[in-house]
Amino acid sequence: MRKLWLMLVCAFAVLVLAACSSGSNEEQGTNSNGTSKQGTEKAEVTGIDGIEITEPVEIEFWHAMSGDHEKALQKITDDFNNSHENITVKLVNQGGYGDLSTKVMAAAKANTLPALTQAYEDWMTEYIENDFITNLNPYVESEKYGFTDDEFNDIMEVFREMNTWDGVLYGLPFNKSTQLMFYNVTYFEEAGLEVPTTWDEMKEAAEILTNDDVIAIGFENGLSIGFNQWVHQAGGQFFDEATGEFKMNSEEGKYALTYVNDLIQSGVARTAGEDGYMSGPFARGDVAMYFGSSAGLPYVAAPAAENGIEWSTAVLPSDAQSAAPFAGTNVTMFNHLSDEEKLAAWQYMKFLINTDNTIYWAQQSGYIPVRQSALDSDEWKSYVEENPTYGVAQQQLEYGFYDPRVKGAYAFKNAVAKELDKVFLGEYTVEEGLEAADKAAAKELGK
Amino acid sequence: MNQKPTLKDTLIGYSYLLPALIILGVFSVYPIIKSFFMSFYADYDFFKDIVHSYGFDNFIYIFQDTEFYKSLTNTFIFVIGVVPASISISLVIAILLNSKIKFGKLFRTIYFLPFVTSVVAIAIVWQWIYHSEYGILNYFLGWFGISPIEWLNDPKWSMPALIIMCIWKSLGYNIILFLAGLQNINPQYYLAAQIDGASKFKRFWHITVPLLSPTTFFVSIVVLINSFKVFDEVFALFNGRPGPGYSAQTIVYYIFEKFYNEWEFGIASAAAFVLFIIIFIFTLIQLYVGKRKVNY
Amino acid sequence: MRQAFSKGFIYILLTIGSLLMLLPFIWMISTSLKTPGEVMSMPPTWIPESWKWDNYLKAWEMAPFLRYTLNSIIVVIVSTIGEIITTILAAYAFSRLQFWGRDIVFAILLGTMMVPGEMLLIPNFVTLSNLGWINQYEALIIPWLASIFSIFLLRQYFLGVPKELHYAAKIDGCSNFRFLWSVMVPLAKPAIVTIALLKAIGSWNAFLWPLIVTQSEEMRTLPVGLTAFTTEAGTNFELLMAASSMIILPMIILYIILQKYIIEGVSKAGLKG
């Protein structure tokens, strides 16, 4: 105990000194840079058609799929391994998406990245920034291993765009979902209401449906982070990827924010708040309709059925235009691999979303098939007939859009959402909120 | 016994320390030094370990960031709310559990349960306790004519909600530490005091408190440090968000967000560095007070 | 009379407290037996309408829990024993030995507690990767073989043991090492058992670290298995709680077994003050 506190001060001094002396080690990093740069250049494409896989190649695919999703993915992967001599793809479950992202970060730092991973677009933006992932254009264009134009354009346009940065394709879409309107059929029938297709109808219906026990509209807690949906529907723009500008502080943005905020402030709409997710209150009959992810369908189905709630889904209501956000991860390929490993990885990526597999995957998981040919197939059509709620998401594909992809997108989206939240909490007026969001966005984007 | 240690003494001392020093040196001290160093990176490539220039940019950034100040304030509120309450409540319960009571074993097991119960279960039950409409807390408050509080929806109440849950959650752990500490007090002291006719309170004040002081000192330092580092509980109680409108964002949440979600490694390190300095100062104060009050 | 009254008061206080402590635990067990619809009900039902015991079977089959259990047991046993040994040695040095730099080394180690663990994850991953230990038991065990928290705790406990014992032993010609193992360790049994218990629970419940440093199902531990019940769109609470209940059961049993060593320390050790 004697003078321990003094020692703690000394200890601190020692730490600082040690930190400074370890500086010299850091400098050496510069030397190794030259070699690692060469490594990536070597892997730049040198005629993919000329590559043959003659020796056994084993590659890893890191994913965050669990339960039934994982089983379906495993089945597709087994099929691939059985049909491709010399290639073995090993699935590695890395926990949830957050864990997967952390793991990729750690592996990148330790130079132990796998061949393939699931990734959101904002992760991919960071990966591109740090030169982790592979330009897929040469693979798409390859005569021997690539796609024909028809095959490539068969992938939904919105999904192709999501994976393209400055004309370079960095990934293929895998598990994609969109926002839907879930509604309580009984409540609408009792009130003699049609399912709203426009904002005006929705507002009208909301006022009728709200009573002592029921709040008409539910929003997930992600309302503010996914607010671009409302701005787009109002005919505005949230973010301009080409110029890197935040565009919500506009007439349309103001109109959209006012519309949603009025719903909340007048008590006909609520956010999930303390309930965590809207599926709970919806399955209890506390709300008449809510906006949620199509990936959540199975989680609504079971409890709602038990509680005797009759429900269905519909496309998002529109205002100036229809717009639906699409989210979910893609599969992307890291670039430290040998040419053979890359080719193997590419073949797996292609296989994963061929027409048959994307149908199988969608049926097992509830995600959206990523190919037009899959949507047109008899197999999928009869599936949708049996499960009508699963057929709604695809109707929104033609006007689908996706989140801004820009360096620091995560921080930017959050900074804006924080200010919008203050509007919904009643701390800011709509104008103040937009002003503040504009400033916050400028700060994050200008960093 | 306080003669100057010889070289031989020193060698003996370090031979005892060696196993622990190797592990802690490699897996704690070394990465911490690296991360402190990183807080001075101004222009760098984290993944390739290249530093183009050093500077105070990261510190300048955080000290101009209102979010950082908000996180600091929330963390201080949290520490003030949790530390004294947690220590005193667990001390009292530990003493009760240590006295000769019926069902002592059962009670001790029950008070230990929160420590092993799944964090998810704990968070969900507290979400229910706090629920504005269905929750039991508002139900009890209703008895006293207090109108329902939106514990988890209202930014004003999110910190109190977090603090109450964390006091509850820390009890099991602290009680175990106090129970262990109480065993170090020789029962003969109590016997002697009882023979001298000392009252229960006097015995508590003159025997338990001073003789438990090394444990109390330890618990208070550990609870303080852990409270400054609160993170998981925020994540669990508010479903992965830092409360409504970021009202319960703590400093480690800020660090986590910067490091893992925004890839701002230097800024995260700088914030961790500032947190370190703050905890460090508080620990110094505790050590200083402890030096005068702790009996060995 | 007053005695009885205050005793009664103590029992009432402890019982109310117990209920508060038990709530989440009861909810966990009760949820593990519910149907998905009943899980969502608000306010929660405490007794399931129909007892779905097969949730436990379903949960068990969702992940290779047998293998995970084996790994967890190996990791807990080895790392707990290892930590106890390093802790006893270090705590003794910090509390009873005189040597150069003692307090400053202790202070540096204390300082490491002040940095959030989130900052250490990536550098430690890189270290383990350089050592070639990723996806090996080494990665799951070796970084956790020492803890400053435990050293600090035991040091405090050792400091509470009368110094006269040490002097007396020295005069009797008892070596430091023998004194430590034959006098100090038995005396500090409550603290050592406490450390072992906290360590075992911490190691048993550790999630992020085992997940990050392993690459295959064969190397993973029980808490990693809990991720099987959650997807981005929702959580199967009834299965998650069934699995959680199964996982914590061994720790509760461990506590019940070890409790008597924590509580009956000194009286058994027979210390004459």
Task: Give me a quick take on this structure.
The complex is a heterotrimer of chains A (447), B (296) and C (273). With 447 residues, chain A is of the alpha/beta class. Chain A contains 21 helices and 14 strands.
Describe this structure in words.
The complex is a heterotrimer of chains A (447), B (296) and C (273). By secondary structure, chain A is α/β, with parallel strands linked by helices. Chain A folds into two domains: 195 residues, D-Maltodextrin-Binding Protein, domain 2 (3-Layer(aba) Sandwich); 193 residues, D-Maltodextrin-Binding Protein, domain 2, CATH 3.40.190. Helices cover 49% and strands 16% of the residues of chain A. In chain A, the strands form three sheets. In chain A, strands 1, 2, 3, 6, 7, 10, 11, 12, 13 and 14 form a ten-stranded mixed β-sheet that branches. Chain A has a two-stranded antiparallel ribbon with strand order 4-5. Chain A is globular, with a radius of gyration of 25 Å. About 6% of the residues of chain A have low confidence. Helices cover 71% and strands 1% of the residues of chain C. Chain C is built from 15 helices and two strands. The C terminus of chain C is likely disordered. Chains in contact: A-B, A-C, B-C. At the B-C interface, α1, α3, α4, α5 and α7 of B face α1, α4, α5, α6 and α8 of C. Chain B: It is found in: Cell membrane. Chain B: It is a multi-pass membrane protein.
What are the key terms here?
heterotrimer, A: 447 residues, alpha/beta, D-Maltodextrin-Binding Protein, domain 2, 2 domains, ten-stranded mixed beta sheet, 21 helices, B: 296 residues, mainly alpha, MetI-like fold, two-stranded antiparallel ribbon
Q: Which whole number gives the mean pLDDT of chain C?
A: 87
This entry's quaternary arrangement is heterotrimer
CATH architecture descriptor text of chain B: Orthogonal Bundle
CATH third-tier fold name of chain C: MetI-like fold
End-to-end span of chain C in angstroms? 34 Å
Tell me the count of domains of chain B: 1
CATH superfamily of chain C: MetI-like
